[in-house]
Amino acid sequence: MKKISISILLISALLIACNSTKSVKTEAIPVKISEIKAKAPELMGKLISLTGMVAHVCRESGKRLFLGEESFKVLATNMVPTFKVEWEGSDIIASGYLKEDRIDETYLANWEKELQDGAKVALKEATHTYDAEAKGLDESAIVTQMDQIKGYRDQIATGGKGYISFYSLEVESIIEKE
User: Cα dihedral sign for 104, 106, 107, 113?
Assistant: First the structure.
């Protein structure tokens, strides 16, 4: 009887030990904004953190902000649904995951056709322009959008990949530095 009790006790202890899980907190990899483009392929899928001054917060939705002189785009998520306009000029630490948007000739041709057909182009959150908003330009103006299309075509032609990549950070947490 003692052997059975000891065996049951040992098996129980083993099962408890095997089923216990530790809560592992992933540490964000600090990355300089200026290094994102060069390091992007190795950073995809990894939690990273960026530190910088908030140059601009989208006033329409509060779902985008731009960091530093590079105007790196940070996107709101379910974890952080909006950003505060008051953060403009403040230093923050934003942690999250990189997102890549690819712009190719097919995308540009469709965009150009919509503009030429006179359709009112609604800017989508996913493809919200990078350059225009950061520079304070009217993104809805057809001329601004046609200029962007031309600029993107030039970048595609000189890039050699057949597309251009834009990276942004889908934020998991954000801290305003004191």
Answer: positive
Domains of the chain, each with CATH number or no CATH: 29-176 (2.40.50.140)
**C-alpha triplet 34, 106, 108: angle, nearest 5°:** 60
Has this prediction a pTM greater than 0.85?
A: no
CA 84, CA 54: separation in Å to the nearest integer?
10
Q: How many CB atoms lie within 10 A of CB 73?
A: 22
In a structure prediction context, what are the per-residue pLDDT tens digits for the chain, which is 178 residues long? Answer: 555 545 454 455 444 444 444 445 679 999 999 999 899 999 999 999 999 999 999 988 999 999 998 889 999 999 999 999 999 999 999 999 999 999 999 999 998 888 887 755 444 444 455 566 666 665 667 778 888 899 999 999 999 999 999 999 999 999 998 7
| Cα angle value 144/171/24 (rounded, 5°) | 160
Question: Residue 139 and residue 130: Cα distance in Å, rounded?
Answer: 10
